[in-house]
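Need a sequence for this fold. Nothing fancy.
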């Protein structure tokens, strides 16, 4: 049988799709990229926003429309959080939550034999088979992304992810070190450490991201890039390491979400605007020209014009290299979904638009202040380079993809031409 796998959402889902692809291949199934000619469709769904739900359903509808006799399996975060909603779709044959992804081949075969029920979802906070896993690598061109952690122990009032991914589970440090060593020996110059909430790495093992980084710095890999970090989880020694160690890329994604202290409290983010500013300014002072990125939610319930102006002012004043604006999306089961003062969609859309414009200005500012500087960069497979501080430059170099080069950052106008 031919199996086609479709991934919606974040990199965590891409890791999971690769894992399931391996399960099917090792069980004798033909995994195909030909979406139009498959017998089984595995739709790895996303539920972080209502848009993720909608895109997931559209992929399901398309699969059944292309091959009405196919078996459609809905798995992933949407399947974990809202299994009955998906089970109610006539296009869905099997629902497999995140708790049962390891069993997906057995579940399919039981379905074929007529021995299975539709829904396979357990309690994500109690499932023993989710407790341990090895470091898993996903490749984006020449840059390996290593998933070292999954789950989150913080329950921000707007976020559905802990209900979809469970509490923190970390790969053992020795497994991560072995994987980084292996990739370095294969010639990869940069590796990216990623997870649902990377700064919570090791909480379940009695260790920490700081301890892991101290070990990884001793390996032969040349650049270690980190995915998103939570500022309330960065202690002084971790900040000292991030801002002093050359092997750690000067690129830090620190989600802000709002510049209003009132909204931050309602979001249950665990920090004030003053505390966030102190961390950002500390990084910028100790390691100038670092790319500091952030996420911002527009239209959180109760967000007044004053609250939004405070967010805009914070983004304007802090040395951000880029920002990712998101419209607030109501997620059933979260505290925020029960709040009054929901913002009209047209207001949210306007605020997101203003933040997108601000993102363009911040990116331009960050490029301009870096003009003329010589930095390390990885040559990308698609052409061009990605600098250590996260500037992608479409330059034609006589260098092998994946190699590490020194490059002078050109003027922005020169790049535009």
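Here you go.
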């Amino acid at each position: 049988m031919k199996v086609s796998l479709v991934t919606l959402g974040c990199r965590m889902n891409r890791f999971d799709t690769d894992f399931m692809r391996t399960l099917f291949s090792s069980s004798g199934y033909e995994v195909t990229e030909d979406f139009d000619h498959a017998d089984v469709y595995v739709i790895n769904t996303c539920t972080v926003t209502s848009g993720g739900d909608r895109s997931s359903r559209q992929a399901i509808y398309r699969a059944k429309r292309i091959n009405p006799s196919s078996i459609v399996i809905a798995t992933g975060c949407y399947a974990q959080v809202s299994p009955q909603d998906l089970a109610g779709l006539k296009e869905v044959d099997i629902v497999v939550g995140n708790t049962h992804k390891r069993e997906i081949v057995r579940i399919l075969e039981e379905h074929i034999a007529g021995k299975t029920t539709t829904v396979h979802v357990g309690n994500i906070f109690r499932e023993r088979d989710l407790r341990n896993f090895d470091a898993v690598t996903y490749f984006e061109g020449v840059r390996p992304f290593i998933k070292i952690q999954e789950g989150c122990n913080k329950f921000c009032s707007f976020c559905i992810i802990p209900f979809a991914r469970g509490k923190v589970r970390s790969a053992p440090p020795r497994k991560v070190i072995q994987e980084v060593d292996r990739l370095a020996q294969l010639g990869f110059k940069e590796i990216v450490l990623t997870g649902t909430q990377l700064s919570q790495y090791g909480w379940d093992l009695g260790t920490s991201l700081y301890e892991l980084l101290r070990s990884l710095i001793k390996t032969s890999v040349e650049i270690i890039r980190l995915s998103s970090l939570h500022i309330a989880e960065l202690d002084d020694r971790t900040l000292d390491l991030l801002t002093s160690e050359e092997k750690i890329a000067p690129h830090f994604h620190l989600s802000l979400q709002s510049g209003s202290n009132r909204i931050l409290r309602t979001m249950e983010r665990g920090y004030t605007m003053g505390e966030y500013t102190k961390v950002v300014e500390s990084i910028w002072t100790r390691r100038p020209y670092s790319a500091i990125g952030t996420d911002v939610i527009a239209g959180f319930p109760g967000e007044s014009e004053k609250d939004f102006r405070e967010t805009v002012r914070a983004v304007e004043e802090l040395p951000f290299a880029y920002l990712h604006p998101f419209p607030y999306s109501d997620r059933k089961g979260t505290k925020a979904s029960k709040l009054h003062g929901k913002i009209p969609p047209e207001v949210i859309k306007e605020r997101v638009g203003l933040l997108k414009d601000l993102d363009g200005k911040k990116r331009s500012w960050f490029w301009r202040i870096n003009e003329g500087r010589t930095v390390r960069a990885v040559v990308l497979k698609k052409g061009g380079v990605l600098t250590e501080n996260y500037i992608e430059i479409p330059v034609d170099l006589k260098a092998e993809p994946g190699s590490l080069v020194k490059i002078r950052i050109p003027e922005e106008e020169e790049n535009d031409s």
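For context: The chain has four domains: 2-120, 131-249, 252-369, 374-416.
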